[in-house]
Design brief:
The chain is 16% helix and 27% strand. It contains 5 helices and 39 strands. Strands 8-11-14-17-20-25-28-31-34-37-39 form an 11-stranded parallel sheet, with no helix packed on it. Strands 9-12-15-18-21-26-29-32-35-38 form a 10-stranded parallel sheet, with no helix packed on it.
């Protein structure tokens, strides 16, 4: 017996979804059978008939002719070309649609954390843990710490005394949130990250280094994500501040008293030295370095492996690398390099005269 149009559609497993449901979820136009079910999100080159993929860059349009994907998310400009090969979801921003689809997909498959404190966790007297929060096995929550509603402290994570973790924020396994440091709501901190270690502060004295105690903390805003093994040092006197929406990749180093503006994003192995001020909506590619006490304007984009040695006052994209040399030679060569364009124009002018 086959179902009729009036029969309810059979329930799908969490690993499957109908195209009609996805179109409504994403606010996309569907060209194709709304009852067709996909079971996987994947790249076009390795897709099968039950895969949904996306094409955000028109330069890769040729992939449409070869992919076996059951459905492709495309922009309106590729609507007809994509429809010629099969089912299509048309969205003004395919990459954004893909991002939201992955969030929805993961939420359906992920096991929600169990509220409560694991029997092996250590919670010191005076800590406040919301009834809906989750504290995992072998975790530690110090005296005076506050864990907000629906927040998660993962296995073996450490939350120091007087620290605070906001609502719906998640410390993955083995994260360290040191004493008096604070994280806002909906943040994600991946395994191995250390928030609030001492900043690198030492006073030279008679050939030795005298430690400068770091008396500030780290303050992190809402909707921040921090990658695995990233380190954010506590301030020397004032706090180190990471504003709302900042995204830090793995193995990023943020020095003491740095301030990073809202919605800035740094790729892996970026290093920012102490007391630098980074604006809003900035980006830095992998391995970029920003020296201490510099100021970076809003909407500055630094390419991979670039070393920023002076403040940047204007928005834009900045790049550069220079060979290592002894400092005196390096400074002379750098000064010459800055004049290279002017020297070229002068040379061309002389050639024209001759």
């Amino acid at each position: 017996m086959h179902p009729t149009a009036s029969d309810p559609a059979p329930a799908l497993a969490p690993t499957a979804a109908r195209l009609g449901d996805l179109a409504r979820l994403l606010g996309a136009e569907l060209i194709g059978d709304p009852a067709f079910a996909i079971t996987r999100i994947g790249p076009l080159e390795s897709a099968d008939a039950n895969t949904i993929g996306f094409l955000a860059n028109p330069r890769y349009q040729a992939q449409l002719a070869h992919t076996l994907a059951g459905c492709v998310i495309v922009a309106p400009a590729l609507r007809e070309a994509a429809a010629a090969r099969g089912a299509v979801l048309v969205h003004d921003d395919p990459y954004l649609a893909y991002a939201r689809l992955t969030q929805w997909w993961a939420a359906r498959r992920r096991q929600p954390p169990v509220a409560g404190v694991h029997s092996s966790a250590v919670v010191e007297e005076g800590a406040q843990i919301a009834a809906t929060a989750s504290v995992g096995a072998l975790a530690f929550v110090g005296r005076g710490a506050v864990i907000g509603a629906h927040a998660v402290v993962g296995q073996q994570a450490f939350v120091g005394g007087d620290a605070a973790l906001g609502e719906y924020s998640w410390l993955k396994a083995r994260v360290v949130l040191s004493e008096a440091c604070r994280i806002g709501t909906r943040a994600i901190v991946h395994s191995g990250a250390v928030i609030g270690a001492d900043g690198f502060g030492f006073a030279p004295h008679e050939g030795r280094w005298e430690k400068i105690e770091q008396l500030g903390a780290v303050v992190i805003g809402d909707d921040v994500e921090i990658g695995a093994n990233t380190c954010i040092d506590r301030g020397a006197l004032d706090d180190t501040v990471i504003d709302d929406g900042v995204k830090l990749d793995n193995l990023v180093q943020i020095g003491h008293n740095v301030r990073i503006g809202a919605h800035t994003a740094f790729a892996g192995c970026v290093g920012v030295a102490g007391s630098a001020r980074i604006g809003r909506h900035c980006t830095a590619g992998g391995g970029a370095i920003i020296l201490g006490h510099l100021e970076i304007a809003d909407h500055v984009h630094i390419t991979a492996a670039t070393v920023i040695t002076r403040s940047i006052r204007q928005a834009g994209q900045y790049s550069g690398a220079f060979p290592f040399d002894d400092n005196a030679s390096w400074e002379k060569n750098a000064a010459t390099l800055r004049q290279l364009h002017t020297l070229r124009e002068r040379l061309r002018a002389l050639e024209r005269k001759n």
